[in-house]
């Protein structure tokens, strides 16, 4: 326990020294993101489940800069959802829909961002593809006919637990 306090104190001193040097050279918001990244990297867990600073096991990175747009509710038509794919409008959050629910997956931009392996799901209603484990573009839709309902429920549960629910997909009738 004593070593944890010493490491924590040392980290605080180093941060204070760096703050005096670097903070005046960059905007406060950017500086705060850098500090949070350093703190998150130090609090990564060891095999016993504790971190240097006593933080939780596998903490979620909190250094993702949220935009004003992620604070509201997104009730979108399928064609509107395309704007949130992380490609043509990089200033917008990365959204996808599973089970008619719209999730902000911006925190997972290393997976869903432009050029990343799961970017094909970004900006799309992809319940079918995720539920059957398909990367085929023809499965990027919410047609769940013939799909195991437990698989659909599992995907909705996964995204609900991992990402922020920010809205819902509008029905075809609402979009006409």
What do you see in this structure?
By secondary structure, the chain is an alpha+beta fold. The chain is 39% helix and 10% strand. The chain has 2 domains: 1-63, no CATH class; 68-175, Flavocytochrome B2, Chain A, domain 1, CATH 3.10.120. Strands 1-4-3-2 form a 4-stranded mixed β-sheet. A hairpin with a 2-residue loop joins strand 2 (95-98) and strand 3. The protein is globular and about 35 Å long.
Salient structural properties:
Flavocytochrome B2, Chain A, domain 1, globular, MAPR/NEUFC/NENF-like, signal, Cyt_B5-like_heme/steroid-bd, Cyt_B5-like_heme/steroid_sf, 2 domains, alpha+beta, 39% helix, Cytochrome b5 heme-binding domain-containing protein
CATH topology of the largest domain: Flavocytochrome B2, Chain A, domain 1
Please identify the top-level CATH class of the largest domain: Alpha Beta
Poorly predicted segments:
43-72
Tell me the structural class.
alpha+beta
Net shape: globular
Strand % is: 5-15%
Percent range for helical residues? 25-40%
CATH architecture of the largest domain: Roll
Largest sheet: 4 strands, mixed
Distance between the termini: 62 Å
H/E element sequence: HHEHEEHHHEH
Q: Count all strands and give the number.
A: 4
What is the count of DSSP helices, taking H or I runs of 4+ residues? 7
Give the strand order, joined by hyphens, for the main sheet: 1-4-3-2
Quote the average pLDDT.
74
């Amino acid at each position: 326990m004593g070593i944890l306090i010493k490491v924590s104190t040392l980290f605080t001193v180093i941060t204070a020294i760096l703050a005096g040097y670097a903070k005046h050279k960059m905007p406060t918001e950017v500086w705060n993101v850098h500090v949070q990244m350093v703190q998150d990297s130090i609090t990564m867990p060891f095999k016993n489940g504790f971190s240097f600073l006593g933080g939780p096991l596998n903490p979620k990175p909190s250094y993702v800069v949220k935009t004003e747009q992620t604070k509201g509710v997104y009730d979108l038509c399928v064609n509107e959802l395309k704007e949130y794919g992380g490609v043509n409008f990089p200033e917008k959050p990365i959204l996808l829909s599973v089970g008619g629910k719209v999730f902000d997956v911006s925190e997972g931009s290393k997976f869903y961002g432009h050029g990343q392996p799961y970017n094909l799901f970004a900006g799309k209603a992809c319940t079918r593809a995720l539920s059957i484990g398909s990367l085929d573009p023809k499965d990027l839709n919410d047609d769940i006919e013939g799909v195991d309902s437990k698989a659909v429920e599992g995907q909705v549960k996964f995204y609900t637990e991992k990402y922020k629910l920010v809205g819902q997909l509008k029905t075809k009738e609402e979009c006409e």
